[in-house]
Every structure is written in structure tokens, then in C-alpha cells.
Design a protein that fits this description.
CATH architecture of the largest domain: 3-Layer(aba) Sandwich
CATH topology of the largest domain: Rossmann fold
Helix content: 25-40%
Distance between the termini: 63 Å
Structural class: alpha/beta
Number of helices: 25
Strand content: 15-25%
Shape: globular
Number of strands: 21
Number of domains: 3
CATH class of the largest domain: Alpha Beta
CATH superfamily of the largest domain: Thiamin diphosphate (ThDP)-binding fold, Pyr/PP domains
């Protein structure tokens, strides 16, 4: 096996034969499976892109050539080949290897994202910088078939086709999967393009038997040839040169087409089809996205090491299943932007296939679609991760909240998130949603309270947000009833007050009880609107507000503003994430320590409040 940890940079590839590089690909797959089984991470996408990554670094020459990865979750082979194999022991862990691109980690990482569909826009920026004299040679963007269907990607394609005298290269890594199976009309088009065997076969034969200058001529007239064989090619219709489709797991073939694209004189798309999960049977056979992003698992069985106990659920799973208990007089419609698996909607989809719509990676479209559903006497539930909801700010603001439309937005991965780094933290949504008119924002302290909140807000005619974390919990205790938007006092005291919400309520309650502290603990399960009546009872009191979101626009900010406007003279201490904070990769406990949100520092704050 090749000593992958000895790799310093990709220059060694230039001296390798195809046979040697194929063996290297096998070693990389074995390395990825072994390491990801221990740490967790993005498995399926990285196993599928091994040959393509090797070919890219063989054909192109960094640092002057720029390789831009969309999202960056499929960069593991690239990281190995650019000298970072030793970091995989601490992948996605505190002070460990970033699971996405990272400017600070390596000069080879030229574009940070974490969110999809930005790579072609970035490619355009690099090309224009090159035209303006920057020391840049060839520029390549690698984007998946799910990501290319996003609106930003189409906007960028529309622009990049107009660039003259340069050859931006777009690699379409087509594996028929996003997290799970790719949906929508573009998926059907790509399927037709993959099946155009007649044209593809003719082209391969001609490339073998004819001289290069003739096959070059053939490429120039291929649109006429394809018109009778392959009727749908959105890239050529946009004015881009198109190569493909090619087997992206055939190293020799990929190298050949990349070398040809490198010689192109105009913007081009290289369409390769790859096998997501290649080399690991469980991942290859996965059609639901279970092996897209994984926790530690048993290599021999493919089963996760984490086992749920009886009555233990993830918040995602519990909230999704609670839709069945929602009592509304309108037709329930669930919408999600490519989050069927992540938001645990698969079971619901199986039960109600005509009531759940996966719209693909299209958060803006999902939000506006929900607004139109609400206008037409439907009851829409929009399931979206906190970090991805940011992409639909304008649509939620103008299409939903401005007109007070009763759309229920289920915000998954709210608050701090383990293992996902700065781009995937759910710490901005409170500020985002509380800035919008009519918007109700709530979060339950337990699974049962989350279910009760979902039931309550689905019955009122307001745009509403229910937040829930990436966490597991036991569904213990009696069912909860919520009939108004008041706050809940979970521990009585006539002295000082702690206000918080979500799972922080139970954490703080335990700290207070374990240390016999005489302090009132309040569950602000409705973050917006605030409980004005209760705040008036706190006049002249000392109050500590604890929350795991950015401080500006937070509950603490709302309380402070209300106190000042109403002369309540509340002496407020606020523990939150500083504005502009950079959240590193790591588990939630380590992240809390960085920002003094951990139990030790929180206990100090509570004791100071009591003094």
C-alpha cells in the first residue's frame, strides 16, 4: 500500500503510470473507509470522486492552476494528495482536519464554501481576475448534478458562457445523487445525456481511428450530429462547449478528456458520471443517502456504532413524526430542499407520498412555493437546516412574513453543531427571523415540548418557526399542552432570574439544582414575540440571559430593547456568541469552551448573579 501520509504535494503524480495511479486510487479508498469509519464524515461522495481527483491533480498544475470544489465535502482525496493524509485521524474534530475547504489549512484550497452551487460563480471571478493580470493559469470548477440545478449555478452558467478568450472548465460530477437521489427535470435531462450511447459510441470510435486534427473538427460540428441523436443538452444551448458523458471512474478516460478540455479555447463542461460510494458495497447500494454523511460505523457490517435506546429519538426524527399528530383544517403539504434524509422525512414520505415534495437544492424556490401554498388554503411545512435557511432570507421575508402567511418553518440543526465548522452553524437564524414582521419563533426544551409547540403554531394563522437542535434525547414524561405564547417558570424563586430556551433550559436547571442555587429559571419557549407581561414582573431585577446564538438580534437583545423602551430597569447580563465569531470544527462542548458557554463558566455567571 502506498504511504499516503508521506505525500507532501501532488507533483509525484506526474511521474506515475496509469497502472500505478489505479493502485493509488485503491489505496486511497481503503484509507478513506478505514478512517471515516472511526471519525465519521462524508463517505459516499468521496469514494466516488477518487479517480477524478487524481486525474485533476495529474493534468493541472497548482498553485497557478485553480481547482474549485463545490461545497467541499468531496475533497478528501484532494486533501490526501495535497499532503494532509495524517490529519484524517482527527477529521472534523476540534483542532483537526476541516471537512470542507479551508484557506488557513492549505494553499491548495482556493475556494471555501460549505454551501452548494457557488463554484461556477467563483470560477467566473477567478477567470476575470486572470484577465486583469493575476498570476492564474487554468481554472476548473467541480460541481455535482444536484448542485448544478440550483438557481445560483444557473445564473453563473448564464454569465460564464459569455467569457471570451479564456477557457473556464466546469466538471459536472454526475452520480445521480445529492445527499439522496437527485430530483427534478435536470435529473431527467442528465439521464438522457448519460443514455445517449449511440452518439457516445460513434465519438469514441472516431477518436480511436481518426487523427487528432480530424476529431477536433468533429468536435466543432458535433452539435449537428447530436441534433439527430441527443435532443436535450442544456449546456450547449447556453453556448458552452460540451464533452461527455464519460466514465468518471475510468482514470485513463478522465485524464484524456481533461487534457483535451485544457486545450479548449472557450468555456466548456466536462460531464463525467461516477459511482457514489464506489469500492464499499454498502455505500454503493445506498439509494437513500445513509452513507452520504456518516458517524462512526462498523466497516464489516456498515452499521453505525451509535445505537438508539428505547424511547431515544433525534429531534429531527421526532419533529418529523409529529406532523402526523398536527390537527389542521387545511391540506398538509411538507416541502424540503434536498433534506428528505437529513430531516428524517423518509418515513413520512412513505406514508404520505403525495404530501411531501423534495424540490432539490433550491431553498429560495421552496420558500416561495410554500407561500403560494398558504395563499391557496394549504398548510405548508418547510423543513430546512438553519444554515440553509439563510439562503432564502428574501423569500421568507417578502413572500411569507410580510404578508403574514401561515407557513410553518421547521428549522433543523439550530444552535451550535458538532463537526460541521463555520459554514454550517445554526447561530444566525434567531437574528434573521426576529427581524421579520409577524414571525413567531419558538423552541422547546424537550422532545415532548417541541411536539406541543409544533401543534400549537400550526393551528394559528401566522408565519412561524420552530427550532430544534442536532441532538438525541429520550421522549420521557407526560405530553405537554401549550395554549398561548407565555413563558414557563420551571424553577421558582423570588430572587434573581435566568432566562433561556431550548435544551439549555434542562442543562441550566440541572446546574442550579446540583449546586443548590436560589435562582428562578425561565423557559422562554417563545423567543418572538417575547412575553411582555412577564418582563414587567422583572422590573429592577438582575437577569441573566443565556443562548447559543449570535448576540445581536437575539432574545437578550430583544429583552434589553424592551426594558429600555418601557423603563423596566432590568439589570441584564447576556451570555451568547459574540458577533462575528468564527466557529471551528469540533464537538459542541469544545466550541462552548471557546466562547465561555460551557458548564464551568456558566456556573460562574450564575453564582455571580446570585451574589
Amino acid at each position: 500500500m502506498y504511504d499516503l501520509k508521506s505525500i507532501k504535494d501532488p507533483k509525484f503524480l506526474k511521474n506515475m503510470s496509469i497502472k500505478e495511479m489505479k493502485a493509488l486510487c485503491s489505496d486511497i479508498r481503503e484509507f478513506l473507509i478505514d478512517n471515516i469509519s472511526k471519525t465519521g464524515g462524508h463517505l459516499g461522495s468521496n469514494l466516488g470522486i477518487v479517480e477524478l481527483s487524481v486525474a485533476l491533480l495529474y493534468v493541472f498544475d497548482q498553485p497557478n492552476d485553480k481547482i474549485i470544489f463545490d461545497v467541499g465535502h468531496q475533497m478528501y482525496t484532494y486533501k490526501i494528495l495535497t499532503g494532509r493524509a495524517s490529519g484524517f485521524e482527527n477529521l472534523r474534530q476540534f483542532n483537526g482536519l476541516n471537512g470542507f475547504a479551508d484557506y488557513d489549512e492549505s494553499a491548495y484550497d482556493v475556494w471555501e464554501s460549505g454551501h452548494s452551487s457557488t463554484s461556477i460563480s467563483a470560477l467566473a471571478g477567478f477567470i476575470i481576475a486572470k484577465q486583469n493580470g493575476e498570476d492564474i493559469n487554468d481554472c476548473v470548477a467541480v460541481i455535482g448534478d444536484s448542485s448544478v440545478a440550483n438557481g445560483e449555478a444557473f445564473e453563473a452558467l448564464n454569465f460564464i458562457a459569455t467569457i471570451d478568450k479564456n477557457n473556464p472548465i466546469i466538471i459536472l460530477n454526475d452520480n445521480k445523487m445529492g445527499i439522496s437521489k437527485t430530483v427534478g427535470a435536470t435529473a431527467k435531462i442528465f439521464n438522457l445525456m448519460r443514455k445517449s450511447c449511440v452518439y457516445h459510441g460513434i465519438k469514441k470510435v472516431l477518436q480511436i481511428i481518426l487523427p487528432k486534427f480530424i476529431t477536433g473538427w468533429f468536435h466543432q460540428v458535433k452539435r449537428g450530429v447530436k441534433a439527430t441523436i441527443q435532443h436535450e443538452n442544456i449546456f450547449e444551448d447556453l453556448g458552452l462547449d460540451y464533452y461527455g458523458p464519460y466514465d468518471g471512474n475510468n482514470l485513463r478516460e478522465v485524464i484524456r478528456v481533461l487534457e483535451r478540455a485544457k486545450e479548449s479555447k472557450k468555456p466548456c463542461v466536462v460531464h463525467v458520471y461516477t459511482k457514489k460510494g464506489k469500492g464499499y458495497l454498502f455505500a454503493e447500494n445506498d439509494t437513500e443517502g445513509k452513507f452520504h454523511g456518516v458517524g462512526p460505523f462498523d466497516k464489516e457490517t456498515g452499521k453505525p456504532l451509535k445505537k438508539y435506546e428505547e424511547d431515544e429519538f433525534s429531534y429531527s426524527e421526532f419533529v418529523a413524526s409529529s406532523i402526523n399528530d398536527v390537527e389542521v383544517n387545511k391540506h398538509v403539504v411538507c416541502v424540503t430542499p434536498a433534506m428528505i434524509v437529513g430531516s428524517r422525512l423518509k418515513h413520512l414520505q412513505n406514508e404520505h407520498p403525495n404530501a411531501i415534495f423534495d424540490v432539490g437544492i433550491a431553498e429560495e424556490h421552496a420558500a416561495s412555493m410554500c407561500a403560494a401554498l398558504a395563499l391557496n388554503n394549504q398548510k405548508p411545512f418547510l423543513f430546512v437546516y438553519s444554515t440553509f435557511a439563510q439562503r432564502a432570507y428574501d423569500q421568507i421575508l417578502n413572500d411569507i412574513s410580510r404578508r403574514k402567511l401561515p407557513v410553518t418553518i421547521c428549522i433543523d440543526r439550530a444552535g451550535l453543531v458538532s463537526g460541521d465548522g463555520s459554514t454550517h452553524q445554526g447561530i444566525y437564524d434567531v437574528a434573521m427571523f426576529t427581524s421579520m414582521p409577524h414571525m413567531i419563533v419558538c423552541q422547546g426544551k424537550t422532545l415532548k415540548e417541541s411536539k406541543a409547540l409544533l401543534k400549537y403554531i400550526s393551528q394559528i394563522n401566522y408565519p412561524s418557526v420552530i427550532r430544534f437542535p442536532k441532538a438525541n434525547e429520550f421522549a420521557l414524561g407526560d405530553n405537554v399542552e401549550i395554549n398561548d405564547m407565555s413563558w414557563e417558570v420551571v424553577k421558582e424563586s423570588d430572587k434573581n432570574v435566568i432566562i433561556t430556551y431550548g435544551t439549555s433550559v434542562m442543562r441550566i436547571l440541572k446546574l442550579v439544582n446540583d449546586n443548590n442555587l436560589d435562582v428562578c429559571v425561565v423557559n422562554a419557549r417563545f423567543i418572538n414575540p417575547i412575553d411582555e407581561a412577564y418582563l414587567h414582573t422583572l422590573k429592577n431585577k438582575h437577569v441573566l440571559v443565556y443562548e447559543e446564538v449570535v448576540e445581536n438580534g437575539s432574545l437578550g437583545s430583544l429583552i434589553s430593547q424592551y426594558s429600555m423602551k418601557n423603563d423596566l430597569n432590568i439589570k441584564l447580563s447576556h451570555v451568547a456568541i459574540p458577533q462575528g465569531a468564527y466557529i471551528p470544527f469540533g464537538d459542541v462542548n469544545n466550541i462552548r469552551k471557546i466562547f465561555r458557554l460551557d458548564d464551568d463558566n456558566l456556573l460562574k455567571e450564575i453564582k455571580e448573579l446570585c451574589d
